[in-house]
Amino acid sequence: MTARTLATLGIVLFSVATLASCGNTIRGMGADTANAVDATQDAGRNVERAAN
């Protein structure tokens, strides 16, 4: 293999790893946001029950 082929292969592998990491981060942020919404709704229900 030539140096150019190895460099191209390295760039492609780096790009794939970077994109996979971004996908995991975005998925994790979505789960965190959903958990925050659930917790906020639960807190609202608790306040409503306490007020009644």
Largest sheet: none
Radius of gyration: 23 Å
Q: Identify low-pLDDT runs.
A: none
Distance between the termini: 75 Å
Structural class: mainly alpha
Portion in helices: over 70%
Tell the overall outline.
rod-shaped
- Nearest-integer average pLDDT: 90
Give the SSE string. Answer: H
Number of strands: 0
- Percent strand: under 5%
Please characterize this protein's 3D structure.
With 52 residues, this protein is mainly alpha-helical. Helix content is 94%, strand content 0%. The protein contains 1 helix and no strands. The longest helix has 49 residues, at 3-51. The termini are far apart. The mean pLDDT is 90.
Keyphrases for this structure?
mainly alpha
Secondary-structure map with pairings?
Elements: H1 3-51
In short:
Helix content is 94%, strand content 0%. It has 52 residues and is mainly alpha-helical. The mean pLDDT is 90.
